Amino acid sequence: MTRRNKKKKRFSRTQAGKNIRYIVIYGFIRLIRKIPRKWGMTIGRSLAMAYYRFGGKQKTRVIENLSSVFKGERSEQEILELTKNVFLHFGTAGIDAIRIPVYVEKGFNHIVTPRNFHFAKENLSSGKSVIFLTAHFGNWELMGAWLASKGYPIKVVATPASDPRLDRLIVDTRNKAGYFNIARGKSPKEIIRAIKQGDYLGFLIDQDTDVKGVFVNFLGKKAHTPIGPVLLARKYDLPILPAFAYMKPDMTYVLEFFPPIQLADTGKPGIDIITNTQRCSDAYESIIRRFPEQWAWMHKRWRKQPEYHTQKNK
């Protein structure tokens, strides 16, 4: 890292740096919600391309992750093209996530088409809670807002943003759209209350977090994966339904629902937890392999590995 970059990084961590970042983001959000979607898309994709060209560490991580997973399947040029498309996707989907209040007011029909919603309807009519399993893929925020717009009481378990002010912006957007936020780390009591009320819960377990998890196979490598949804499904006899909102070439979305995951129950809890977490991982790996440019490859997904994790906890 150059001396100039080190200074920029240090400044970004100061209160002044955080204040400037918040003001810029807040102003950007206000702008995107006022202008036409087409203009917003142009801005979002232009910023994405700029970030792709000068993305530094984030771009490097995307390339490394893609190269590791698709080694032998894709050429170096194909990996670079896929990396560019990852940035373009999030530049586009991010604009729609910001514009959720606009869609709540005007409706989602022009940008969201449900597919196989009968898998969800069969379970939503039971009066019991349902666990929706999704990922940092496509446009997961739009999925929550769409379900809420149809009158389903959904709550999402999410990691708070590092800046409390930015976190409030995100949480307010969710709450006002009708899919309510449960902060990870403060969630057990709220989750249990939601289950008892018959609310539906959204979980994203495709990232390496510090919550309780097990190692399962994901995209050809061992990945530390949260077990919360599996434990809740087992304890409260709840179905786990995979659902993903992916973008089409015309920049509209398909919200695709899948059959409930068949959960193993062998009477051996430890084995069942690993087996069922693997089945959850397989569900979102399948959709990521279909549309690899729509997953958040910039995350350190394989940060923890079994050997390191074992040594750390000795």
Notes on the protein architecture:
- α3 (37-54) packs across α5 (76-98) and α4 packs across α5 (76-98).
- The strands form two sheets. Strands 1-9-8-2-5-3-4 form a seven-stranded mixed beta sheet. A two-stranded antiparallel sheet has the order 6-7.
- By secondary structure, the protein is of the alpha/beta class.
- The mean pLDDT is 90.
- The chain has a domain at 111-314.
- The chain is built from 13 helices and nine strands.
Q: What characteristics describe this protein?
A:
about 325 residues, alpha/beta, 13 helices, 9 strands, globular
Topology:
Elements: H1 3-13, H2 15-34, H3 37-54, H4 57-69, H5 76-98, H6 100-106, E1 112-115, H7 118-124, E2 131-134, H8 140-149, E3 154-158, H9 164-177, E4 179-183, H10 188-197, E5 200-204, E6 213-218, E7 221-226, H11 228-236, E8 240-247, E9 253-257, H12 269-290, H13 306-312
Parallel strand pairs: 1-9, 2-5, 2-8, 3-4, 3-5
Antiparallel strand pairs: 6-7, 8-9
Helix pairs in contact: 3-5, 4-5
Describe, in short, the structure shown:
With 314 residues, this protein is an alpha/beta fold. It has 13 helices and 9 strands.
> What sequence of helices (H) and strands (E) makes up the elements?
HHHHHHEHEHEHEHEEEHEEHH
Helix content: 40-55%
Mean pLDDT: 90
- State the distance separating the first and last CA atoms: 34 Å
> Looking at the chains present, what oligomeric state does this protein adopt?
single chain
Question: If helices are DSSP runs of H or I spanning 4 or more residues, what is the number of helices?
Answer: 13
